[in-house]
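Example (one chain per record):
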Amino acid sequence: MKKGVLLHSDISAVISRLGHTDQIAISDAGLSIPSFTQTIDLALTQGTLDLLSVFDVVGQCTGFDSS
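Predicted structure:
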């Protein structure tokens, strides 16, 4: 069993497949996304999940920087 803070299986799967030159974007509502791009929507209701909380957890799992 994978140990860590990330419980969302879809996000965990994406992170596990990241290569050295791959990129992910973490955004709040309103980002224009091409239809061919894989997305994971965490929206439940307005204000229930803030962007920085998601970024912090994903950052802990990947060790990436904020550039």
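Caption: Residues 15 and 62 are 7 Å apart (CA to CA).
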